[in-house]
Amino acid sequence: MSERLKSPTRRNLLKGGALLSGAALTGAAVPARADDPAITNLQPWMQELGDGVDAMPYGAPSQYEAHVKRRTVEWLTADRISSINFTPLHELDGIITPNGLCFERHHGGVAHVDPAQHRLMINGLVETELVFTMEDIMRFPRENRIYFLECAANSGMEWRGAQLNGCQFTHGMIHNVMYTGVPLRLLLEEAGLKTNAKWLMPEGADAAAMTRSIPLEKALDDCLVAFKMNGEALRPEQGYPLRLVVPGWEGNMWIKWLRRIEVGDEPWHHREETSKYTDLMANGKARRFTWEMDCKSVITNPSPQAPLLHKSGHTVLTGVAWSGRGTIPRVDITLDGGKNWHAARLDGPSFDKSMHRFYFEFDWDGTPLLLQSRAHDSTGYIQPTKNELRAVRGENSIYHNNAIQTWHLRENGEAENVEIS
Amino acid sequence: MLKFLSILATGTLLLTGSATAGSFNLGRAATPAEVAAWNIDVRPDGQGLPDGRGTVEQGDEIFAERCAVCHGDFAEGVDRWPVLSGGDDTLTSDRPVKTIGSYWPYLSTVFDYVNRAMPFGDAQSLKPDEVYAITAFLLYANDLVEDDFELSHENFTSVRLPNEDGFYMDDREASPIFKKRNVCMTDCKADVKITARAQVLDVTPEETETETEAVSAASASVSHPEPVIAALDDALIEKGAKVFKKCKACHQVGDKAKNRVGPILNGIIGQQAAVVSGFKYSKALKKLNDDGLVWSDENLDAFLTKPKTFVKGTKMAFAGLKKEKDRVALIEYLKSHSQ
């Protein structure tokens, strides 16, 4: 029996791979390649029986994927309850974000709501003020839609310069899932809107009792009251048992633990649309009600947390793009900091107000690169550079930074968040 | 049966026909009391304000007790908690300070938010008069009223904040960025230089932490049962964990616990008062330490019943746990985190 290797860690695997290919390159004309112990050694999983079907009634990722997780940046907020964590975009592919990796933003922590005790009330300018139980809501016709949800403050730390080294931190306040829910229009029609109804105020059942003002046209257009994400019940941190879906608009409006919708004739100007989520301009005035999320993209691989370990040779570059105003028909890629651009290949389904996946395959010669992606949306809007955005916005607006991101890829395959001329 | 009678009494039970305006006949009419219980929102025009009143002086006292631990005695903000006063003339500076006085457009926002979400960790515990008083104090802290001012539902809408006109409707689509334009694809610029680098700032969380956690998470997935400390009551600990939710806005326990607004509570039972390193205790707590007080079931129970009565001058802004069973459960939970 040959000596068994310990289960290799992911990092050792990568190092091992690099060593092997190095050995192959320096070998003689008839390569005396060392035998790969991954083949010649009997691995424990080839011999021993694995777990039975009762070991994991609710599945979890492989133990070798334990590093793939949401992470926070401690210095951003005063505590961990009214705080944020980030989706590990550099570890994902396709367009769907797994439920356990969807970034979280809470203002009073995660409410653990008993669905049997949960009610949705519609009050204000309606014919009949109504109360629904979860069972009532499940009896309305449902729709399935895939939408991105991006926090308005995504990339907000990058206004004054390149700050955080990793697309998880610069762009990770976004996720993209399939929602199952009831069109909000149907619930409002059930209550009967009065003719002077113009605004809605959804409210959460959490300790922050989160509220936002939403114009009625949006509510009647495409908002959903969702109870499932990616086929299963909403996660508690995403608003179980009920959340509002406001497609293409800033994440703060997607009220979680949705318990009430008031109908009114004017906006409420509550904290999250005055003190916060307003965009301060250089002249000291602030934009309010900046709802749509502008067209944006980022290269997720390579990136600072995902270096190119294989060094030169055939290389797959990938990333994501999205727009709160439609679909993404086109993404351009540059390897030389914007001197020359190339068309990326979009792959996977293209849905309205959903994430899109792009790829660009090229032969890397091992020299340093300056990588950028530039998205175009279906309205013809083109993602701006950071300097173009700063010219019209200043550096104090925190929210709605949709600028082009630059990664500096060095000879050794490591990448850094930089800004360029 | 009682419930049925009360529904009849409120007169909202519809015996025939559809309760709803829509075609699905789903849901039921909300009772007036139900709407009143949740309909607490306030608008700039005063709609939704409850009857009540409060003075700057009353607000000062309540603020010191319930709010100052995070927001500071003068609403100047502690650590990274929100600054609520000052910041005049900073909106065009490199570091704008966006406070009630310098930035917020409407006073109703202050009332509504304090009423619905404050104090942090004890939301909706304030009475209308207290919310009026706190709001009055915040006006005073921003130099907008005199110290003898009283705010009420009667004079509320006469108070205007300085930056009311500092906001305008989203006009992004009028900016040059939204103009249709052609993009260059080849030979777009001659020279490119790196002008800023994230590594210079060095504020990204360390990756090494991830790796060590990954190893422990991997071994944990084999799912060993947690070691049980024999003398403790698991069911009680579980109840205590729930009670601890009231504390965790400020306190942490466990391996990764850090001092926050309050000190780490690992091993608190049997520990001398005010000895957690790196935490700035109040004078009152330091005196307990000088007196040699060691936390026990009994004195911690007394402290948790009414913190400010047991330790006059503690900066812990928590009213206390009225129910004995909550205190017992919490103490059991704290014992389960004995270092």
TrEMBL record, chain A:
CDD domains: bact_SoxC_Moco. Residues 288-406 form the Moybdenum cofactor oxidoreductase dimerisation domain. InterPro entries: Ig_E-set, MoCF_OxRdtse_dimer, Mopterin_OxRdtase_euk, OxRdtase_Mopterin-bd_dom, OxRdtase_Mopterin-bd_sf, Sulfite_DH_SoxC, TAT_signal. It comes from Pseudovibrio japonicus. Residues 107-268 form the Oxidoreductase molybdopterin-binding domain. Its cofactor is Mo-molybdopterin. This is Sulfite dehydrogenase. The gene is soxC. The keyword Isomerase does not apply. Pfam families: Mo-co_dimer (PF03404), Oxidored_molyb (PF00174). Keywords: Metal-binding, Molybdenum, Oxidoreductase, Signal. The lineage of its organism: Bacteria, Pseudomonadati, Pseudomonadota, Alphaproteobacteria, Hyphomicrobiales. Residues 1-34 form the signal peptide. The keyword Oxidoreductase applies. Coiled coil: none annotated.
UniProtKB/TrEMBL annotation, chain B:
InterPro entries: Cyt_c-like_dom, Cyt_c-like_dom_sf, Cyt_c_1A/1B. Residues 1-21 form the signal peptide. Keywords: Electron transport, Heme, Iron, Metal-binding, Signal, Transport. It holds the Pfam family Cytochrom_C. SUPFAM superfamilies: Cytochrome c. Residues 54-142, 235-338 form the Cytochrome c domain. The keyword Chloroplast does not apply. PROSITE patterns: CYTC. This is Cytochrome c domain-containing protein. It comes from Pseudovibrio japonicus. The lineage of its organism: Bacteria, Pseudomonadati, Pseudomonadota, Alphaproteobacteria, Hyphomicrobiales.
